[in-house]
Automatic annotation (TrEMBL):
One of its GO terms (molecular function) is DNA-binding transcription factor activity. One of its GO terms (biological process) is response to cadmium ion. Residues 4-100 form the HTH arsR-type domain. Keywords: Cadmium, DNA-binding, Metal-binding, Transcription, Transcription regulation. It comes from Streptomyces dysideae. The keyword DNA-binding applies. It comes from the Bacteria. This is HTH-type transcriptional regulator CmtR. SMART domains: HTH_ARSR (SM00418). InterPro entries: ArsR-like_HTH, HTH_ArsR_DNA-bd_dom, HTH_Metal-responsive_Reg, WH-like_DNA-bd_sf, WH_DNA-bd_sf.
Length: 111
């Protein structure tokens, strides 16, 4: 049973990161490989401004980190265990009921 505030905060931050479909797509892309914002925006077919807002949210949640590379910045998951958590969570949800969708899945949510 979770009773420690830091445990609850950690789960809430992860939940917030996963609460938006674009952030989920970003996390899945970064799970495959670190990427630069311009490449991510192109890969996900979203504007750089919109991507920047979502990356800021993910950074604030402590889920991704920005790694300076000269004049550019590369984004990656803050810890490899987050990638494992994404795989485990996705697998568990699909194992329970693969044909379900969230009623609010089409709602747009911004940080």
């Amino acid at each position: 049973m979770l009773t420690i505030a830091s445990d609850i905060d950690a789960l809430a931050r992860f939940g917030r990161a996963l609460a938006d479909p674009i952030r989920c797509r970003i996390l899945l892309a970064l799970h495959k490989a670190p990427a630069h914002p311009a490449d991510l925006a192109e890969q996900l077919a979203i504007s750089r401004t919109r991507l920047s807002n979502h990356l800021a949210c993910l950074r604030d949640c402590g889920i991704v980190v920005a790694v300076p590379e000269g004049r550019r910045v590369r984004y990656e998951l803050a810890d490899a265990r987050l990638g494992h958590a994404l795989d485990d969570l996705r697998g568990a949800v699909l194992a329970v009921e693969a044909d379900r969708t969230c009623p609010d899945a089409d709602e747009k949510d911004c940080c």
